[in-house]
Specification:
single chain; 6 helices
Length: 231
């Protein structure tokens, strides 16, 4: 509902966000950029603290300050699955088309594509790594941070010294594992428990300020089995 509040405020101030649907889409981003330009703010398209204060006259509605637009998009896509056997999920292929990436078949690992879509669709000024389909390419994305809600987590897969990896968003943690909201986890967008000792690094988008680290609530049962090989 926080995104809906932003859309409603934009519309009330004469900036068309498109349908008031609670989805952080292109029209809403364009409206935010137009609003930022009109108020002499840096036109990033991201809902930063300065934009919130200008949009809500110093009083952000409940929850907006905690909104991470890429996580809202990631959560919206929960349950998206690749097509088994012949054919591909057109939604997944469209993510690649939107980013001008060559991606012909969802049998190709798509965890990096999922992260690229969530970041690219919601933070239009954010630079993506040169090969966003490669999970370990995300080690060069953004800026380093502590693992926290919304952080991009990059893991080794197979062996730490190898080239294979996995990438997703931090949605929680327990004593033994991170709870990762990611794509290509059991062939779908889902939450998986991945052992802490597989983490290579945590990264944060440059165009979004790192919020104070809060308590992470476990988002998958702690007794759920650890993911061993994300596919």
């Amino acid at each position: 509902m926080s995104i809906l509040s932003v859309q409603t405020a934009l519309q009330a101030k004469g900036f068309d966000p498109g349908p008031l649907d609670g989805v952080w889409g292109r029209k809403t981003i364009a409206a935010v950029i137009a609003f930022q330009q009109a108020h002499e703010l840096i036109p990033t398209g991201a809902l930063d603290a300065h934009t919130e204060r200008a949009l809500f006259l110093g009083a952000s509605p409940p929850g907006v300050a905690d909104t991470l637009v890429w996580m809202d998009e990631a959560k919206r896509l929960m349950g998206t699955r690749e097509v088994s056997g012949h054919g591909s999920n057109e939604i997944i292929l469209q993510w690649a088309d939107d980013l001008d990436l060559h991606y012909p078949d969802d049998d190709i690992p798509w965890c990096g594509l999922f992260v690229a879509h969530c970041i690219g669709a919601t933070l239009p000024s954010e630079a993506l790594p040169s090969n966003p389909l490669g999970a370990r390419s995300w080690l060069k994305a953004g800026k380093a941070c502590a693992p926290s809600w919304g952080a991009i987590l990059v893991f080794w897969r197979g062996s730490m010294a190898g080239w294979e990896g996995h990438v997703g968003f931090c949605a929680g943690m327990d004593e033994d594992a991170f709870h990762v909201l990611g794509g290509n986890q059991s062939n779908s967008v889902s939450i998986a428990r991945i052992a802490r000792d597989r983490l290579l690094d945590a990264r944060w988008p440059v165009t979004s300020p790192i919020p104070p680290q809060g308590t992470l609530v476990a988002s998958a049962p702690a007794e759920a089995a650890l993911s061993e090989n994300e596919v």
